[in-house]
């Protein structure tokens, strides 16, 4: 299992002979990588905000996976290839890997003026593009008993704490590696996503061997606080802070 972070919520996942790209946004402030560098089998979106689908048009050959309402919206704003809708609890069988869509809690409405010319006479101005989600990637079919030799990666998406992390993902899927935001946007610690203390609780619940915190390279204070919160909880998950473009293999 190879996990490459490109900044923001953008991950490239290689697992079970398949390749996945999550929330494609190659922000030059974070990475020199460009969409042409990658050729994923699947592109997965966690929600509809621009920072989740900024470079989506570059992957017209990939199958795009998202919640059902978002899949219905995407053709109005993007020129795409195959679309694969999922709903919460749904599983993508990628022939060698499985992806489970799980819940996340984050603002997810989309204003029409953000993708079309503003039209004040058109109501409502905000459309329903479905819930925010996270994804669990594994090389064995998800069930109530995880095989000992399974490889499992959980990307929380942009979210606050959710009991599903403890009661379902942690208890039954037992991820080896978790990626979670701790202060994704500089100066926005604990405002747009979980901050360090909530993220530490999530990791304590999930008990992965490794956590990959998503944090802007300049956010040294958030990194230090996250490590301190983990230690205070007695959590022995190892924190690995990736630089944008760096790969973690498990």
Automatic annotation (TrEMBL):
<dbReference type="Pfam" id="PF13483">
    <property type="entry name" value="Lactamase_B_3"/>
</dbReference>
<protein>
    <submittedName>
        <fullName>MBL fold metallo-hydrolase</fullName>
    </submittedName>
</protein>
<dbReference type="InterPro" id="IPR050114">
    <property type="entry name" value="UPF0173_UPF0282_UlaG_hydrolase"/>
</dbReference>
<dbReference type="InterPro" id="IPR036866">
    <property type="entry name" value="RibonucZ/Hydroxyglut_hydro"/>
</dbReference>
């Amino acid at each position: 299992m190879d996990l490459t972070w490109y900044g923001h919520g953008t991950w490239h996942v290689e697992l079970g002979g398949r390749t996945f790209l999550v929330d494609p946004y190659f922000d030059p402030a974070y990475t020199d990588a460009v969409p042409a560098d990658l050729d994923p089998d699947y592109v997965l979106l966690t929600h509809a905000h621009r920072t989740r689908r900024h470079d989506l048009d570059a992957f017209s050959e990939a199958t795009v996976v998202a919640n059902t309402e978002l899949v219905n919206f995407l053709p109005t704003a993007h020129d795409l290839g195959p679309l694969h809708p999922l709903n919460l609890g749904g599983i993508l069988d990628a022939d060698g890997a499985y992806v489970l869509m799980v819940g996340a809690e984050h603002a997810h409405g989309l204003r029409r003026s953000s993708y079309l010319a503003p039209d004040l006479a058109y109501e409502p101005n905000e459309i329903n593009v479905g819930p925010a989600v996270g994804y669990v990637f594994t090389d064995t079919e998800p069930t109530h008993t995880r095989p000992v030799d399974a490889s499992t990666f959980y990307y929380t998406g942009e979210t606050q704490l959710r009991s599903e992390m403890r009661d379902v993902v942690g208890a039954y899927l037992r991820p080896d590696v978790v990626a979670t935001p701790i202060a994704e946007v500089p100066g926005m610690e604990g405002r747009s996503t979980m901050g360090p203390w909530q993220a530490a609780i999530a990791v304590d619940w999930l008990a992965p061997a490794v956590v990959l915190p998503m944090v802007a390279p300049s956010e040294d204070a958030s990194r230090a606080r996250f490590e301190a919160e983990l230690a205070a909880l007695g959590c022995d998950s190892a924190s690995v802070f990736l630089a944008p473009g760096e790969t973690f293999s498990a």
